[in-house]
Amino acid sequence: IFNKTQMTKLQPQTPNMIPPSAQPIRTRTPPLAELGLKANPLPIQEKPPKPTKKTLSKEEMLTMTEALLVKYLSSKDLEEAVNAVKEMKAPKHFVPEMLRKLVVYSLERPDEEQEQTSVLIHGLCTDGLVTGENLIQAFLSVLDQCPNIEDQIPKVKSYLAQFCARAIIADLVSIADLASPLENGNHFPLFLLCLQQVAKRNDPDWLTDLFLQSKVNMSKMLPECDQNKERMLEVLDGRGLGFLFPLMKLEKELLNQLKKDPSPQSIYKWIRDNISLKLHTDPGFVNILITSFLQFIDCKIFADDEEEQLAAPTKEQMDQEKQMLQDFKPVAQKFLHDQVDLQVCALYALQVHCNSKAFPKGMLLRYFVNLYDMEIIEEESFLAWREDIVQEFPGKGKALFQVNQWLTWLETAEEEESDGEED
After folding, report:
1. SS3 143
2. Using CA atoms, how far apart are residues 39 and 259, in angstroms rounded to an integer?
3. By Cβ atoms counted within 10 A, which residue in 57, 97, 201, 300 is the most buried?
4. Measured in Å, how far apart are the chain's first and last C-alpha atoms?
5. List of residues 6+ apart from 139 with CB closer than 8 A
6. Cα distance between residue 301 and residue 296, in whole Å
7. Nearest Cα residue to 130 out of 103, 162, 160
């Protein structure tokens, strides 16, 4: 039996007494401090959930919209008002409703505050918070309310027209965008009121160019009873908008001038003095020029006798017709020379004229031959008219039937001439 002293001697020596090369490999565990850990860490606490933001109701948003507008009209601080709209974070589908609220609230306010509201709407558009489509949606929404609003605000359409005019001038909406929901005299005379307000705030020439670019058919913007040319011109003149259609008056005035003095010198001088230079190459002007002259010839030769017009003309009448066309030649060449597109317009004017008289026998062919022989209309233009498929002008089928054989001859003659030049 070993005693305690002997037991101690028999126990293995501590590792530090063994040479390093003989010590077993051990993985060193670094102290907690080196790991950046506390010896007694605090218990992990879970983050409290973020409170969900309450979605504003439509009524709350409308109340906020009115409040920010009232504040803006008082302070005139546009930046603050735009930021207030941003902070509302209104969903996209609410934006037209917000705009409707802005417009309706300010309709019965003084002109200055209406102007301020328009500035705010412009600012919202500039900042990307509102689109042109939003504006049109809001505009239509206000229109739907007009029957109810008119009881409290009799001039609601006039006030609404002012807002639209400002939006057009600021290029927020186009005339075509505005016209679309107002076609067929819908909410008449709102469209005309809008144009009046634009003309009042900007240059009439600027509005004329903008209106022409819009391609809006004005007859569609009037009630059905006002859609014929003469009545439409009366309505537009009555509202000071006749300047938008300078050519509409021309047809009647030019025919009267022809009756007074049909000499080429007199007619050309009258056109130069009365028709803007930029309209001289307008297809509408060419149409009216040719139409007026054709009507003048009919009036002189047939004296408005419809039965005589439908009957085959005498040789004397055909000679007179040809001579009058010869007299008109200098004026026609002045505006049609080397202009194939305008020469095609002239042929369409002739087509419509013949169609309006139920295509008197031989009339269209006589004019085609004379216009070609007198070098008023060139071969290329006749053939372009034949191939053109535009449906805007009535009577094309009947017209082609009457002159197709002559056009075939013309095409053949032109090809032979071209072959001869090559040889």
Report:
1. helix
2. 115
3. 97
4. 143
5. 103, 160, 163, 164, 173, 178, 181
6. 9
7. 103
176, 216 Cβ separation under 8 angstroms: yes
* Residue at token pair 């939003």: 134
Backbone dihedral angles phi then psi of residue 275, each to the nearest 5 degrees: -115, 125
Q: Which long-range contacts (CB under 8 A, 24 or more apart) does 189-193 make?
A: 189/157, 189/239, 190/143, 190/157, 190/160, 190/161, 191/221, 192/221, 192/235, 192/236, 192/239, 192/241, 193/157, 193/158, 193/161
Asked whether 301 and 320 are in contact (CB, 8 A), the reply is yes
Distance CA 171, CA 166 (A): 9
296: confidence class by pLDDT, cuts 50, 70, 90: very high
389 φ/ψ angles, rounded to the nearest 5 degrees? -110, 15
Nearest alpha-carbon partner for 103 in 174, 23, 172, 192:
172
pLDDT at 6: 52
What are the tens digits of pLDDT across the range 233-265?
888 989 999 888 877 778 778 988 998 999 999
pLDDT of 356 > 80? The answer is: yes
pTM for this entry: 0.62
CA dist., res. 55 & res. 66, Å (int): 18
Return the half-sphere exposure (C-beta side, CA atoms, 13 A cut-off) of residue 45: 4
- pLDDT for the residue numbered 13: 53
Residue 50: the pLDDT is 59
